[in-house]
Amino acid sequence: MSERRLLLVHGSCHGAWCWDRAIPELAARGLQARAIDLPAHGADRTPPAQATLDLYVESILKAIDAPVTLVGHSAAGYPVTIAAERAPHLIDRLVYVCAYVPRPGLSMIDMRRAGPRQPLAGIARAAPDGVTYSFDPTHVPGLFYHDCPPEDASRALELLCPEPIAPQATPCPPLDRVDRVRRHYILCEQDRVIPPEYQADMAAAFGSQAVTWMNTGHSPFFADPRGLAEQLAQITAAL
């Protein structure tokens, strides 16, 4: 089944490495999962100044050679949605893991600022050249990894990279075809980065049957990789 194939896309400052614990759990449930590095993240050598939202979308579509369930974490909600808009025939299902659900005309930064609370205020700091931002490392463990094994949090702190600003400052284009794709939202109830009530608001349009919950913070792939894999297995098995 094509729906048993997943493409996993990371959020801000992360890379394909953040899915390392989840992928074996997915494989144990018969799911063939692959994670990619977006441009200027992880092992990808694209200079941050050249990263664009369009380039993110292109990199996702280039990684798909047959229909997949496309999974986006956090900021990846933007490029995975636009990828599905451009090529709905390649996407069996979209799954948002505590992710932004784009609204046409608004950038991801616009949506973050429109949230009911601003937990990242003063934590995300732009580089002097204005090309990237980074999170204050003294606050990262308590915000992103408060419920994760210490070894995973330590590894993540070593691997986090500066995040290109331009892709997140780019407004979402009109969305005319993405509604053809089935969508599901995994809401993280202990999230300290994207307020859970904001996640619920963004997911409301999917309907209650397309929203499930995890009792984790913003990084369920570390906090509960087995539970995340089980959720994804159930989602992809559903008609």
Question: What does this entry show, briefly?
Answer:
Helices cover 32% and strands 18% of the residues. It has helices spanning 22-27, 53-62, 77-86, 108-113, 140-144, 150-159, 165-168, 196-203, 220-223, 225-237; strands at 5-9, 32-36, 68-73, 91-97, 124-126, 132-135, 163-164, 182-188, 211-214.
Descriptive report:
GO terms for molecular function: methyl indole-3-acetate esterase activity; methyl jasmonate esterase activity. Residues 6-230 form the AB hydrolase-1 domain. Pfam families: Abhydrolase_6. It comes from Albidovulum inexpectatum. By secondary structure, this protein is of the alpha/beta class. The chain has helices at residues 22-27, 53-62, 77-86, 108-113, 140-144, 150-159, 165-168, 196-203, 220-223, 225-237; strands spanning 5-9, 32-36, 68-73, 91-97, 124-126, 132-135, 163-164, 182-188, 211-214. The chain has a single domain, classed as Alpha/Beta hydrolase fold, catalytic domain (Rossmann fold, 3-Layer(aba) Sandwich). The protein is built from ten helices and nine strands. A six-stranded parallel beta sheet has the order 2-1-3-4-8-9, with helices on both faces. Strands 5-6-7 form a three-stranded antiparallel beta sheet. The longest helix is centred in the C-terminal third of the chain and has 13 residues, at 225-237.
Write the layout of secondary structure elements.
Blueprint: E1 5-9, H1 22-27, E2 32-36, H2 53-62, E3 68-73, H3 77-86, E4 91-97, H4 108-113, E5 124-126, E6 132-135, H5 140-144, H6 150-159, E7 163-164, H7 165-168, E8 182-188, H8 196-203, E9 211-214, H9 220-223, H10 225-237
Parallel strand pairs: 1-2, 1-3, 3-4, 4-8, 8-9
Antiparallel strand pairs: 5-6, 6-7
